[in-house]
User: What shape does this take?
Amino acid sequence: MIEPRLASGVLISAIKRMVEAEGDFATVLKKGDAVSGAILLIGQVRGADPKLYECYPSLGGQTAWQTVDLKEPGVVAVQDYWQKRCARDPDLWVFELDVASGARLDGLLAMFI
Assistant: This one.
């Protein structure tokens, strides 16, 4: 049985408001399908060490954030990856968060699954 989930646009909006309410930065780099678009999140702490996360369905039917492993770390590799993904998936959302600490980023990801 498939569990209902929040529409992608609603989930992005909720995360963005929560991040900005705490004084952190959030922006949508590319809008995807408002209802069912996949979400690619770029998370960084104080503008450094960007990491990619994607929201995947788990075996239990819920969703979970998983780290995307890149061959090389860094801003250029992250940008290349998401731009290539967008070329293959026009419904993809690309969302960027810049927060004050790694614990804050982990907490946000845990909250929105």
The mean pLDDT is 89. Residues 8-21 form the longest helix (14 residues). Residues 8-111 form a domain with the hypothetical protein tt1805 fold (CATH 3.40.1530.20).
